UniProtKB/TrEMBL annotation:
SUPFAM superfamilies: Nucleotide-diphospho-sugar transferases (SSF53448), UDP-Glycosyltransferase/glycogen phosphorylase (SSF53756)
PANTHER family: GLYCOSYLTRANSFERASE (PTHR22916), UDP-GLCNAC:BETAGAL BETA-1,3-N-ACETYLGLUCOSAMINYLTRANSFERASE-LIKE PROTEIN 1 (PTHR22916:SF3)
Membrane topology: Peripheral membrane protein
Keyword Transferase set for record: yes
GO BP terms: teichoic acid biosynthetic process
InterPro entries tied to this protein: Glycerophosphate_synth, Glyco_trans_2-like, Nucleotide-diphossugar_trans, TagF_C, TagF_N
Gene Ontology molecular function: CDP-glycerol glycerophosphotransferase activity; hexosyltransferase activity
Source organism superkingdom: Bacteria
Provenance organism: Streptomyces antnestii
Glycosyltransferase 2-like domain residues: 13-138, 558-720
Protein name, per record: Glycosyltransferase
Localization terms from the record: Cell membrane
């Protein structure tokens, strides 16, 4: 971040337009005022409000010189005019816009300004988070835009920015807006669309940061502009703004941006109105259709083509004002691909509606073939079910309706059974009754029937239970379920009673029928609080009659401070007047300057009761009001009641009785939140009856009951101690209650609810949180210092209680301080924070600081290390990697503090063993570790040892840390040296006896004075290596138990010991089989076949379970041709298309057969192009389950042939310690070095070449062909193998991928060159892109779009004369054949930020062809390649030669020789041939900066 220079204008102006926002704007202003960035001015533009908005705002402005108020005299009809005035009046260098009902996170301005200073961009945008006020749930807005940080020249270079048209969550240069004439349109809604488009188009730089900078608060029933889709003004304004935006873009010649904007209107904006359109009346529907239709006819075909099929259909129907047809897309969206439209199939194409094919261009616009509906069974895409009519008599429901007969597949003579199913959403239990009357025609399956509603609901339900109603369809040996749609039917009156309880039918959010309790539906948070039958409403029938004059001496007093609580005041006062003994109660009501009806209501209440006194005062806050009320008390006892809460029945009498009975000075009763929710650890003391506490220390958690409202105090006690409530501060109660409880002569506990505390429904706002206001941090710190000083001379147990109180209650403040306050604010407070924590013992702090981040904050506070507290990251990076050890475990220390503390704890690490293998009488153990909260970025200063611990002995060996790039990638650039390696001689292990033992990590303190052992656990790869093994002259048994517990048992060398061990193993196997443990049959068969198969050499090979086309196939074919005597067997699904292709070579085993199972368990080698155990295990087993059950029987070596050349950093998936491969085949010299050094293979990475490369022979065509073959992007296409991943983050047609390749294919220079030179271009996208092929169209006869499902990729590569690709690794195949290349990595920053990590191969420095990042450059290079006859130029020719280790056609031979060289040892005896190089603590890590990602790790210089 560039530092702010003296004299710079670095102020931010936050503009808040406001109209009738009195109840909400305070939170918005407070969030802007409370920014950690201190140079913020707030301009509130009041748009002629008619409520109390101006008073609320003026109150803030009067107290804060950085808050200004601008008042409009006439309402503008939108936020455009107020925002424009704010821009004009802004004194800041930058401006932000904040709506009156939204909030800024505390660090919003700080983050945005830091980026703006660094980049100088005119616009800096951060993430907005949408927060549901009702539930508190949140989701990111436009997440695809903010997936990674970036800076771009403008909107043209980043059109995806159009996906976030809101003006909020962005920092704008004021000078840019004014000089560019960038203003909001006035008097309309949706002004942001125009403003954001104009600003983005004119900006000199747009920067995107990924941090959240805006909280967009919304309510499901809110009245915000975005929620007013049911008003015609909404769509009319939206269209008007779009028309104005169109005019701007066209005048600027920004046609491509207009197309992108229009496609968003079609796909996003229109969809927002569908539910309102469905619920609107005829006038609304007609007005909507007329407005939208006229605009849609102005939108180009290009924009329609960028839409998905359903979005295109919706827009098309609206264009022709076909409302009902358009609403069928709503049915599709709400019911997860269920179709209510009249789908038709014609000539292999599927159309959305056969009723509308007469409309212009309907065959193109309604074509939805790509949705795959023609082949979709009803089990995957259920039929649409519609309820047409209903009637209820008593509990009998009569109904009729229809199912859409998709494509007319169900014929009249078919057997169709329908059942009405009602599912209890809580229990998931169905009640199913048959539908008696069913008839079928070409378009519909109609049904009619009746059912008893009591029977349908069942017996197991509560007030909150909901039942979903659906139809079960049984047809053509299939069964599907269709939700019963009620979008077009009125449900008012669908009410029935079962067992005295009323139920109703209602329409769900998705428009389907469901049942619920009628009472539960009417219950809201507020209605539940006001439920007349609720226990807190006990007082209604017990109000004391008027008291004209005093006739009793006061026995106790109630002090009630009141401020603007008219809504709840009757409940509060009623609960006082209904108390037993009310006439002897002194009631003091303090009006704290209320501005609502509160003063009048208090005076009115006092006129009825002579024992009530009303004190009117200027607003002084809760503490001041209580103190002034307390000064009026003459009664011997006093309690306090907040004016929105309720006293419990007989609360005053019960507490007074306890005080007198027990002769105590303080009484504590139970406090209940309503509606009920837990209220703290002190509640444990209630539930066992009344009791007396003679010593406060007897109930240590009672200290957390800090409220004064559930307590009765001796008035003399309070005055004797001189206690007063804190004034002008929060947490005012504890200034009185805690000292009073400590010094009281006895405390009585009344086990009855004496106080009902009213909860508030809106708890989602951060401004309602204690942690959001800096003043709260200071107030609570003052309180805690007071309590610590007050108890400084008390007994140890008392001081321990108060230490626990201050530690627990301030933890949230301490750990949130950095997020709420800037550095200067923190600096002002830190001395007091340190003084506070310096008094608290470590064990107390650690009781409440339970994770590493919290413990680090407490360490910084207690040690007095301000830099660590203010910004921990640099301190953590600079700290030595040293662990301290005490009786409790590990902890760290940091330089810079003034007080020693052990609060920076490091929990016991997670130590996992990944490999246990033997080598020359040496047991080699490999694995990894993770110390919570500690980045193992280098060698630890502590000495580490491996321990094999049995009951009687501990065998110790050195343990060395190992470089692990895979862990660094997987753990977010942490733990680069978190691997470990240990060697233990067999003789040393034998010294520990022959008992079973576990593995442990021993960590020594740096000075050698202490040590600590941590038990190791097993990781999945180890399951393949468990079981019986040989270790030199010894044998051992490695087992893995529950919770991955790892045990090793050494077996003696003598004959007796071996016989004993054999008998033990035999008994164990018999027990497993006899107990019928899972997998016992396969295990039993294994032992039956053991004598026949165990001594055989069996090589199993395969690819995916149904393919024979990659390296495995080519190697198998070579083996069956050139090494026929080798027992190699190909495993493949017998029903697959490739079975016959491989079967002709013989020795093919059908997947899942008995032979497959037995040969797999006895195999000596398992060879594959993919993860063999993921594809070649028997049906019904996943890899994890297979290895868990049978790992100890396995002995095969794993060989990975790969399916392509690795050049990106995929170590997280391919590292040897994770995959447990015994050999990996590489093709390039750099590839071998990378996998050997960076992925842990060492010499197990062999430079033999991919077997399929032997078949790579170039096939020249008479007409040269260019192959354009890009790879895919995981953020625009959800992988076909990740069905549950949900939709892609970025719409395909809105992606840079589509934008680039569509432009390249449509480039006129390219088309002309192809036709002029007689060259074809084949566009062959990745397999995952196939659903979007229709979007790529070209008018040139020389350009063809291939279908990846039918076109063979190997053949396409052989036939091409030039390959153009972005990052697809098949470019190695093409280069291998001597074919030239052109690279087009147009989105390199995105690709390596979101899809892959960079590896060893840089396209610009190491690639085999020129690198082009624009369409024009790519076309230039393609034309150059054509002109030179598709020859490979220098230096690319030399780079190819240097990269490939072999290009002689003998890859299969070399692979065979390398596999054969592994020998016949079981995998457990193939330990690494040498130990990794040691690490030296004094060496520093060397990193290489890579654009677009975190620094990539390189090896330690000393390990080179």
């Amino acid at each position: 971040m560039r530092q702010v220079q003296d004299g710079d204008n670095s102020w931010v102006t936050v503009v808040i337009p406001a109209y009738n926002a009195a109840t909400i704007i305070g939170k918005a202003i407070q969030s802007a005022v409370n920014q950690t960035y201190e140079l913020v001015e707030v301009i509130v533009v009041d748009d002629a409000s008619t409520d109390g908005t101006i008073e609320v705002v003026t109150n803030f402005a009067g107290n804060n010189p950085h808050v200004r108020v601008l008042r409009r005299t006439q309402n503008s009809g939108g936020v455009g005019a107020p925002r424009n005035w704010g821009i004009a009046q802004a004194a800041g260098r930058w401006v932000m816009f904040l709506d009156a009902d939204d909030e800024l996170p505390p660090r919003a301005c700080e983050r945005l300004v830091a980026s703006a200073l660094e980049t100088g961009s005119d616009i800096t945008a951060g993430k907005a988070v949408r927060v549901n006020r009702d539930t508190g749930e949140s989701e990111a807005w436009a997440p695809e835009v903010y997936a990674m940080a970036r800076t771009v020249p403008g909107l043209e270079e980043f059109p995806l920015f159009l996906s976030d048209p809101i003006a909020a969550a962005k920092l704008y240069s004021v000078a840019f807006l004014r000089s560019g004439g960038v203003w909001f349109p006035e008097g309309v809604f949706y002004e942001d669309t125009y403003f954001s488009t104009v600003a983005g188009s004119l900006a000199n730089g747009i920067t995107v940061i990924t941090e959240p900078v805006y909280r967009w608060m919304w309510e499901s029933e809110g009245a915000s502009i975005t929620g007013r889709t049911g008003e015609l003004r909404s769509i009319r304004d939206r269209v008007a703004v779009h028309r104005a935006t169109d005019q701007f873009l066209l005048e600027r010649g920004l046609w491509a941006l207009k197309v992108r904007k229009d496609s968003k209107f079609l796909a996003h904006d229109l969809r927002l109105y569908m539910r309102a359109l469905a619920e609107g009346d005829a006038a609304f529907q007609q007005g909507f259709a007329e407005t939208v239709s006229a605009y849609l006819f102005s939108i180009s075909d290009e924009a329609f083509e960028l839409c998905g099929p359903v979005d295109r259909v919706r827009a098309y129907f609206l264009m022709y004002q076909e409302i009902e047809a358009a609403l069928t897309t709503l049915d599709y969206a709400q019911r997860k691909s269920v179709y209510s439209s009249y789908l038709v199939e014609d000539d292999g194409r599927v159309y959305w509606s056969g009723d509308h094919l007469h409309l212009p261009d309907a065959h193109r616009m309604l074509d939805v073939t790509e949705l795959g509906l023609a082949a979709a069974p009803v089990t995957q895409v259920p039929l649409f079910a519609q309820l047409n009519g209903w009637r209820v008599e008593d509990t009998r429901l009569a109904y009729d309706g229809e199912l859409v007969n998709r494509f007319g597949r169900i014929e009249a003579e078919d057997s169709v059974r329908l059942s009405l199913a009602v599912r209890n959403r809580h229990t998931k239990h169905d009640v199913v009754v048959p539908v008696p009357d069913v008839s079928v025609d070409e378009r519909f399956v109609t049904f009619e029937g009746s059912a008893d509603l009591g029977e349908l609901l069942g017996d197991d339900f509560s007030d909150s239970t909901v039942w979903n109603v659906s139809l079960i369809v049984e047809w053509n040996r299939s069964r599907s379920r269709s939700a019963l749609n009620v979008r077009d039917i009125e449900l008012d009156g669908l009410v029935f009673t079962v067992d005295g309880e009323e139920f109703e039918g209602y329409r769900t959010v998705s428009g389907n029928l469901a049942f619920r309790s009628a009472v539960a539906n009417r219950r809201t948070f507020e209605s539940e609080q006001n439920d007349p039958d609720a226990p807190w409403m006990w007082w209604r029938e017990h109000i004391h009659p008027p008291i004209p004059q005093l006739t009793h001496r006061f026995e106790l007093a109630v002090v009630v401070p009141c401020y603007n609580v008219a809504k709840y005041l009757d409940d509060c006062l009623g609960s006082i007047a209904a108390q037993r003994g009310f006439a002897a109660t002194q009631v003091i009501l303090v009006d704290d300057g209320a501005t609502d009806e509160t003063p009048r209501m208090l005076d009115h209440f006092a006129r009825f009761y002579a024992n009530v006194t009303v004190v009117h005062q200027q607003n002084g806050g809760l503490g001041n009001a209580r103190n002034n009320g307390l000064a009026q008390v003459t009664a011997p006892y006093v309690t306090f009641l907040d004016s929105d809460d309720i006293l419990g029945p007989d609360a005053l009498a019960l507490m007074l009785q306890a005080a007198r009975r027990d002769n105590t000075e303080l009484v504590v009763g139970d406090l209940v939140n309503f509606p009920d929710r837990p209220y703290g650890p002190w509640k444990q003391y209630f539930g066992d009856g009344d009791r007396v506490i003679d010593d406060f220390a007897q109930t240590p958690d009672l200290i957390f009951s800090g409220s004064a409202c559930n307590k009765l105090f001796s008035t003399q006690l309070l005055r004797r101690l001189g206690l007063r409530f804190g004034e002008g501060v929060h947490f005012e109660d504890s200034w009185v209650t805690l000292p009073a409880m400590l010094r009281a002569q006895g405390i009585s506990l009344v086990d009855a609810p004496v106080y009902y505390y009213r909860g508030r429904p809106d708890g989602s706002s951060i401004m309602d949180s204690l942690w959001s206001k800096p003043a709260n941090y200071r107030d609570h710190l003052r309180l805690n210092h007071f309590l610590l000083n007050f108890t400084a001379a008390e007994r140890d147990d008392i001081r321990h209680m108060f230490h626990r109180y201050v530690a627990r209650t301030y933890k949230g403040f301490l750990c949130n301080a950095r997020n709420v306050m800037g550095r200067s604010q923190l600096a002002e407070m830190f001395a007091d924070i340190h003084r506070h924590y310096a008094q608290i013992p470590d064990d107390v702090l650690l009781e409440f600081a339970t994770n590493p981040a919290q413990q680090l904050d407490h360490y910084a506070a207690k040690s007095g290390n301000f830099e660590l507290f203010c910004d921990p990251k640099p301190a953590l990076e600079a700290a030595p990697l040293r662990l301290e050890i005490d009786d409790e475990g590990f902890y760290r220390t940091f330089s810079g503090g003034v007080l020693e503390t052990a609060t920076a704890r490091v929990a016991d690490p997670n130590i996992v063993v990944e490999s246990v293998r033997a080598r020359d009488g040496m047991l080699v153990v490999e694995g990894c570790m993770a110390f919570p909260g500690m980045d193992i970025s280098g060698p630890l200063h502590n000495r580490l040892e491996f321990v094999h611990q049995t009951k009687d002995h501990k065998i110790v060996a050195p343990l060395q840390q190992v470089y692990r790039r895979d862990l660094w990638n997987a753990r977010n650039n942490k733990d680069l040296y978190a691997g470990f390696y240990a060697e233990i001689p067999a003789a040393r292990l034998a010294e520990g006896g022959l008992r079973v033992g576990d593995f442990r990590l021993r960590v020594h303190r740096v000075d050698g004075s202490r040590e600590r052992n941590v038990v190791m656990k097993a990781r999945l790869p180890l399951h393949r290596l468990k079981g019986h093994g040989r270790l030199g002259k010894y044998r051992y048994m490695l087992t893995i138990g529950a919770q991955d517990a790892l045990h090793l048992r050494m077996v003696g060398r003598g004959l007796g010991a071996r016989v004993k061990h054999t008998l033990w193993r035999t008994a164990r196997e018999i027990r497993i089989i006899k107990m019928r443990n899972p997998g016992w049959r396969m295990r039993f068969a294994y032992w039956l076949m053991f004598p026949l198969l165990n001594s055989r050499e069996i090589w199993l090979i395969g690819e995916r379970s149904d393919t024979a086309q990659d390296n495995s196939y080519h190697f198998f074919k070579w083996m069956r041709t050139h090494r026929k005597r080798r027992k190699i067997y190909y495993v493949i699904d017998g029903n697959s298309a490739d079975y016959a292709k491989v079967a002709k070579y013989g020795r093919v085993i059908k997947l899942g057969s008995f032979k497959h199972r037995m040969y797999l368990l006895h195999a000596t080698k398992l060879i594959g192009s993919y993860d063999s155990e993921s594809y070649l295990v028997p049906e019904g087993y996943r890899k994890v389950l297979f290895l868990h059950r049978f790992g100890e029987l396995l002995k095969y070596q794993r060989v990975f042939l790969q399916h392509g050349i690795i050049y990106n950093d995929v170590t997280t998936g391919v590292d040897q310690r994770i995959t447990s491969y015994d050999m990996i085949v590489t093709t390039g010299r750099q590839e071998r070095e990378f996998l050997g050094h960076e992925a842990g293979y060492g010499n197990r990475a062999v430079l033999a070449g991919l077997p399929r490369f032997d078949a790579l022979q170039r096939e020249r065509l008479a007409r040269p062909r260019i192959l354009l073959m890009p790879t895919w992007r995981q953020w625009i296409v959800t992988a076909s193998y990740k069905k549950s991943a949900g939709p892609a983050k970025t719409a395909f047609t809105q992606s840079e991928y589509f934008r680039f390749y569509r432009a390249l294919l449509a480039d006129p220079r390219l088309a002309a060159a192809l036709e002029r030179h007689g060259v074809d271009l084949e566009f062959f996208p990745h397999y995952e892109i196939r659903p979007h092929l229709r979007h790529f169209r070209t008018d040139s006869p020389a350009i063809h779009v291939a279908d990846p499902t039918s076109r063979n990729v190997q053949q396409a590569m052989k036939e091409c004369s030039l390959m153009v690709t972005d990052y697809s690794s098949v470019f190695f195949d093409v280069a291998y054949m001597g074919i030239p290349l052109v690279y087009v990595p147009f989105d390199e920053e995105d690709f390596y930020g979101r899809h892959y990590k960079r590896g060893y191969f840089n396209l610009a420095d190491d690639g085999f062809g020129p690198v082009c990042r624009t369409v024009d450059d790519a076309v230039d290079e393609i034309i150059r390649a054509i002109g030179r006859g598709f020859t490979v130029e220098s230096p690319y020719r030399e780079r190819v030669a240097d990269f490939f280790g072999h290009r002689d056609g003998d890859n299969c031979l070399r692979v065979y020789e390398e596999i054969d060289a592994l020998g016949d040892l079981p995998a457990a005896e193939l330990a690494p041939s040498e130990a990794p190089l040691p690490l030296e603590p004094q060496q520093a890590r060397v990193v290489r900066e890579v654009p677009g990602q975190s620094p990539a790790p390189e090896r330690w210089t000393g390990a080179a």
